[in-house]
């Protein structure tokens, strides 16, 4: 009987789920990335997978995010309600973070643009204009699906070459009647 408390402690530890440290939740599954999708949680390098999981679990087509960077504490827009941003390389997705929420926008390869905390809520439920910017996060997306990769070009050109060769070989065949 003296092993029962230890066994109960081990069983309780095993059956208790671990708390997520970077939980991200998509607040409205009918959102549009052009006008912004509201998330609860944080937008930083450690939550990229959580953001994709939350969005891709509710929306189609899926998004693929690659972390590019974020503004730091010296960013002149920190605490402001709106402003402009500039980034050194093309950005496909922009997250505007304020309070415990952020809005994710598709900006399509831009290197600059405007941002606003409109639509974000602080823990007391107050909305813009009471809530100032925490930071901006910048993400790249996948290559433009409309532009084939070099291997695809090679396969396509090879296929055209084979079709041309077959067509040329067929033209050499002549039928004669006696």
Describe this structure in words.
The structure is a single chain. The protein is of the alpha+beta class and 178 residues long. It folds into two domains: 20-140, no CATH class; 147-171. 25% of the residues lie in helices and 28% in strands. The chain contains three helices and six strands; from the N terminus they run H-E-E-H-E-E-E-E-H. It has a six-stranded antiparallel sheet with strand order 1-2-5-4-6-3, with helices on one face. The radius of gyration is 27 Å and the shape is elongated. The relative contact order is 0.14. Residues 6-21 have low confidence and may be disordered.
Query: Average pLDDT, to the nearest integer?
Result: 80
Q: Label the overall shape.
A: elongated
How many whole angstroms does the radius of gyration measure?
A: 27 Å
Sheet with most strands = 6 strands, antiparallel
Intertermini distance: 107 Å
Q: Give the total of beta strands.
A: 6
Low-confidence stretches: 6-21
With helices defined by DSSP (H or I, 4 residues minimum), what is the helix count? 3
User: Beta fraction of the residues?
Assistant: 25-35%
> Can you write the helix and strand succession as a string?
HEEHEEEEH
Biggest sheet, spatial arrangement of strands: 1-2-5-4-6-3
- Strand pairing plus helix content: what structural class? alpha+beta
How many domains? The number is 2
| Helix percentage range | 10-25%
How would you concisely characterize the structure shown here?
This protein has 178 residues and is of the alpha+beta class.
List keywords for this structure.
3 helices; 178 residues; alpha+beta
């Amino acid at each position: 009987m003296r092993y029962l408390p230890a066994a109960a402690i081990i069983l309780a530890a095993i059956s208790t789920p671990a708390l997520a440290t970077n939980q991200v939740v998509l607040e409205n599954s009918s959102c549009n990335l052009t006008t912004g999708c509201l998330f609860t949680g944080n937008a930083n390098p450690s939550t990229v997978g959580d953001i994709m999981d939350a969005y891709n679990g509710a929306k189609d087509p899926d998004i693929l995010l690659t972390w590019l960077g974020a503004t730091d504490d010296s960013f002149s827009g920190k605490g402001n309600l709106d402003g402009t941003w500039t980034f050194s390389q093309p950005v496909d997705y922009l997250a505007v973070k304020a309070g415990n929420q952020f809005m994710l926008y598709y900006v399509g390869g831009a290197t600059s643009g405007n941002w606003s905390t409109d639509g974000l809520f602080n823990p007391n439920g107050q909305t813009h204009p009471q809530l100032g910017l925490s930071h901006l996060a910048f993400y790249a997306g996948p290559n433009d699906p409309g532009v084939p990769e070099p291997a695809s070009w090679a396969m396509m050109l090879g296929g055209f070459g084979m079709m041309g060769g077959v067509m040329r070989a067929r033209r050499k065949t002549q039928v004669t009647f006696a």
